[in-house]
Design brief:
Elements: E1 5-10, H1 12-29, E2 36-40, H2 45-54, E3 60-67, E4 80-83, E5 93-101, H3 105-116, E6 121-129, E7 142-146, E8 152-153, E9 169-172, H4 174-177
Parallel strand pairs: 2-3, 2-5, 5-6, 6-7
Antiparallel strand pairs: 1-9, 3-4, 8-9
The protein binds 1-O-pyrophosphono-5-O-phosphono-alpha-D-ribofuranose.
Length: 179
C-alpha cells in the first residue's frame, strides 16, 4: 500500500469484479446499437479503459474534460468545459463514463451539455457515488460503488494530480492534505 494511504477502501479484485458486472449491464443496455462512449477526463480514464474492455460492445470512444477542481481539495462549484469532444454526438446514443458523482454539479453540467449537443440518449455509468455530498439532485444510471465521504485516491482519482495510477481505491491520510 502507498505510504500516503490510510487504508484500502476497494481492492483491485473488488473493483475488477464490479467492473465486469457493469460491463454485462452495458452489453444488455446497448445491444444492437453503437454508442459513443465518452470519458470525462482525467479521473475516469482508468475506469473507462477497463469498463469498455469488460463490455463486449461496438462503441466509439471520445474524450472531454469538465472540471471544477483546481489543485485544491475543495470544489470551486463551477464546472466548465476545459476540453471539448473530438466529434459530434448529434443523434447518437451517448454513454458517459464518470469516476465519481460527488456534489453532482459536474453531472448536471454534462447532462445539459449533451442535451444542447443533440444527443439521442444519455446513459451515465459512474464508478463511485458519494450521496452524502450531493448538492444537486442527479444520479448516474449505473453506479459501481456507493462510498463514504472520505478523501479517495487511486484507480483514476487524484490529489493534486498524484495517485491516479494506484490499482486500488484508498483513503488519503489527512496529514497529506492538511499539511
Ligand atoms: C471530479 C470527478 C467528477 C467530478 C465530480 O473531477 O472526475 O467529474 O469531480 O464532482 P462533482 O459531483 O462535485 O461535480 P475533477 O474536476 O476533480 O477533475 P479530474 O477528473 O481531472 O480529477
Amino acid at each position: 500500500m502507498h505510504p500516503d494511504c490510510e487504508r484500502i477502501l476497494l481492492s483491485e479484485n473488488e473493483i475488477a469484479a464490479r467492473v465486469k458486472e457493469a460491463g454485462a449491464w452495458l452489453e444488455k443496455k446497448f445491444a444492437g446499437t453503437v454508442p459513443v462512449a465518452v470519458c470525462n477526463l482525467k479521473g475516469s480514464a482508468v475506469f473507462f479503459a477497463d469498463l469498455l474492455r469488460a463490455a463486449h460492445l461496438d462503441v466509439e470512444m471520445d474524450f472531454m474534460a469538465v472540471s471544477s477542481y483546481g489543485a485544491n481539495a475543495v470544489s470551486s462549484g463551477k464546472p466548465y468545459v476545459k476540453r471539448d469532444l473530438f466529434s459530434s454526438v448529434e443523434g447518437r446514443d451517448v454513454l458517459l463514463v464518470e469516476d465519481i458523482v460527488d456534489t453532482g454539479r459536474t453531472l448536471i453540467t454534462l447532462r445539459q451539455f449533451f442535451k444542447e449537443r443533440g444527443a439521442k440518449s444519455l446513459t451515465v455509468v459512474s464508478l463511485l457515488d458519494k450521496p452524502a455530498r450531493r448538492v444537486v439532485e442527479v444520479e448516474a444510471d449505473f453506479v459501481c460503488f456507493s462510498v463514504e465521504d472520505a478523501f479517495l485516491i487511486g484507480y483514476g482519482l487524484d490529489y493534486a494530480e498524484r495517485y491516479r495510477n494506484l490499482p486500488y481505491i484508498g483513503i488519503l491520510k489527512r496529514s497529506v492534505y492538511e499539511k
